[in-house]
Amino acid sequence: MKKYSIGIDLGGTKILAGIVNTQTGEVIAHAKKRTKVQSRKGSDILIKRVIKTIEKALEESPVSIDEIEKIGIGVPGQVDRENGILISAPNLYTYDLNFKKILGEHFGIDVMVSNDVDVATIGEHKFGAGMGYNSAVCVFVGTGVGAGIIQNGQIWTGATGTAGEIGHIVVASGGRPCACGGSGCLEAYASRTAIEKKILARLKKGHNSSIEVSEDGVIRSKSIKDAVDNKDELVIGCLDEAAEYLSCGLASVVNFLNPEVIILGGGLIEAVDYFFNLTVKKTKAKALPVPAKELNIIKTKLGDFSGIIGAANL
User: pTM for this structure?
Assistant: First the structure.
């Protein structure tokens, strides 16, 4: 049995591909390219860049394509897992993209497709922070807020394959509009995107802050960390608000699912201990006493590789 697979983490800004030893979780080679999808030709551009990223990873690897068992890919959108199709990824201008057929024909090996958060959850459960837990919820705070669910040691995707959309738990009825078309969703308040928007809006109104903003209006996670270290009241206030809403969502998950562990990930969680620690404190205070007492809330361990390791293990 072949022990190597290719894992791909397809994101809104980057494509990461790795050659993974599926028995140990070791990434023996990897490559990264920018996604660069900004037009209605999204599907054509995307598949070409995915293929180039895979080929680059293979060039960097001592393992040849003949030693690869399969390709696994995690994608940010709705998927048809059985047929290997990305049904819809509006942020990538991509619809009905048959990864299984196209990549399978190009590389001559089997292809598996799943949701990006689910594959990251699989990676963390098998080789990262979730090892040894029978039930877990892995929550990633980024452009949105997504979650993967482990039940009885296996990924659980629900009746329609869409379980884990924690970012669309309503935390404020009639609140801020969300990209999903609804309003008051958790990710409209607690995602990294929402936090960045809040900081920029306050800066525009003339509030004082030491936060560093790039020329194109982007705030890096390190800049947020530095601002917190400098006791920047504007930034701390925005993080406090986000932690309040995020903890509402997490406490609801604790009360409803009663997992052994919640694993938090994403660049902001990893970089800013203040935000992580405050979220943990508020979550445990809001959840029911019995499940809260036994609950562990920890950070991810695999960093950027959680997605490619999980994808390789589909």
Answer: 0.92
